[in-house]
Structures are given as structure tokens and as C-alpha cells.
Amino acid sequence: MNHSPVLRAACILLFAVMAQTLYAQRSDIQYLRYYDQRGINVFETSKDDTVQYEGVKLRLGANFTQGYQNIRHSNTSSVPLYDLSGGFPLAQANFNIDVQLTDGVRINLISYMSAHHHNETWVKGGYLQIDKVGFMKSELLDKIWKDLTLKIGHMEINYGDAHFRRSDGGNTFWNPFMENNIMDAFTTEIGAELYWHRRGIIAMAGMTNGEIQGSVTRAADRGPSVYGKIGVDQSFGERMRVRLTTSVLNKSSSINGTLYGGDRTGSNYNYVMEPANAALTTNAFSGRLNPNFKDNVTSIMINPFIKMRGLELFGTYEIAKRSKRCRECRSQLYPCYRRCN
């Protein structure tokens, strides 16, 4: 059978594109937390320059989780609970896109392809991370930026360390447990974070719009959220690692803050302690407690982490407080008597 030159050229071009796509999926990206076992016990990306820049690269990947649940529940109230039985919950999947734009500059974009809260595709968020500023052509900035990292975008905010070890939709690889904390401090907001790293010492300052969604509506009560983190992360040979961080967040005037309700994927427990007529997407957070702190929130989280050979200890101590406003002066930071009495 004879093939035309155009058809042969088209086939060659198709195979070349497929080969390039496969190569792109295996590309190493600078300053990336990998989605496989290499990402376990990784918190903020380090300033270690271990990947050589070889031009623009595209890395495509996915996370997939299929669980099996066999739980029973009961209560003594008049409200019947969902009739549980053993079975496979809805599978969850994430689609990850990472792009190396230039030396020390990368883009990340994650989408939820399927989740317990949203069965359809939703974008988690995306951000630009800058670890080098060679494109600025300034020796002074290059020297300053050796210890700095800047993240800008609609992204997972870096409050506390617990969010680095949680299940996130189809990505459950980094969580040693079935589910996240009961009060799950996780949300995505629009803003920026500036990091300083040196010899195991970490400091970060961030500011966001304070809400999970963007908005251009005029509102007198809308204001940014500010937060920060300071800590130390030291390794003693290959046998021992010690990390201790403290994070503080203040959300002074948001219309709809979601610090403890920003997860759009849902719990890994299905219908547990839910009423008999429960629907998955509207009762997707079984096993979690959301205090519904929308604004005027001050939260502090302390996270110790110790790893000795194969033994790990990770802890979370958190205090969250929502203050009330004075109806007269709308004071948030001071007692009312300083202005009203």
C-alpha cells in the first residue's frame, strides 16, 4: 500500500510531538516539590540549586486516589443516619501543570478533575515562583535574591505546616493518615508571599485579599489578610532532622473568609454521621469542624517536627480567636471604650 508524502510527513510530525510531550512530562523543574515520594516531608521549597536550567520546560502530571470505606455509625437521636455499607467512594483526581519559564522562575497550576465536594473540574489555583532574578540583569539583585523566594498568585496560603501533610483531592501521597485535621486550616487566596532562607532558618511574610474568590464589589468591610511564619529546620547528618515553626495570621475584615473552610474537594470520610437523606456534594466534609470564622480572625499555629531514622513526630498546636466588632465605631483592634465611651 502506497502512502503519500504528505501522510508520511504528518505521521512523522505526530510521533515527534508525542515524543516531545513524553519528554516534557519527565522534565525536572527547578525548586519544585515533587508529587511522588520525593515530596514527603518537604515543606517550603529550598534554595538548593540542584536542577540545571536547560530552557523552557513543561511538566504534566496527575494524582489519583481511589479509597475503600467500611464504617458503621449509630446515634440515639430521632434523626436517622445515612445507611452506610462497605464500598468504594467516588474516585478523586488532580491535574498538575508545572512550567519552567526561565532560570529560577516557574509556574504551577493545579486543577481538581473530580472530588467529593465538586464532581466536575475546578481550578485549585496557580502561582508564579521566583527564586532567581537573572532576567533583571543586576548583580546587586542577584546577590540579594540568593536567600529570597517570591510567590505570587491565587494559591494555597502558607499558614502553619499542617497543610504540607494533608490530603488534597486526588493527592493523598503526603498524608500518613486517612484524613486531615478536624479543624483543617487550608484555603486558597489571591496574594503574595516573600521568603527568606539561610542555614536552616526560615522567615516568611504574606498578604492576600482575605477571601477564596476574587471580587471587585465595593465593600467598606473588605481588607487584606496578613500572615507570617518563622522557624528553623536543621538536619544532623542523615539520621536526625528537627524543625520548629510558628505561624500567625490576622484576617481583619473579610466578607467571606474561609481559613477553616477553603477545601473544595471534601473529606475522605463519606456520609459519616450525616443524615439519611444526605447528598455527597452538600455533605462532603464528614469528620471536620468548621468554626465558620469569616473575618476578625487571629490564628496562631505551632508545628514541631522530629525525624530520627524511620521514626517521625509531627505536632500541631493552634489557637484561633474571632473578635466581635463594636456596632458604633466598628473597632476591631481596641476595646470600644477607647472610642465610644
What structural class do helix, strand and pairing data support? mainly beta
Mean pLDDT: 87
Number of helices: 2
Distance between the termini: 96 Å
Low-confidence stretches: 11-24, 331-341
| Element order: H for helix, E for strand | HEEEEHEEEEEEEE
Counted up, domains total: 1
Portion of residues in beta strands equals 25-35%
Q: What is the helical fraction, as a range of percent? A: under 10%
Record field, number of beta strands: 12
Largest sheet: 12 strands, antiparallel
Radius of gyration: 23 Å
- Principal-axis shape equals globular
What features would you describe in this structure?
It is a single chain. With 341 residues, the protein is mainly beta. The chain has one domain (11-338). It has helices spanning 5-25, 139-144; strands at residues 57-65, 92-102, 105-114, 122-130, 148-156, 188-198, 201-208, 225-236, 240-251, 297-308, 311-314, 317-322. Strands 1, 2, 3, 4, 5, 6, 7, 8, 9, 10, 11 and 12 form a twelve-stranded antiparallel β-sheet that branches. A hairpin with a 7-residue loop joins β3 and β4.
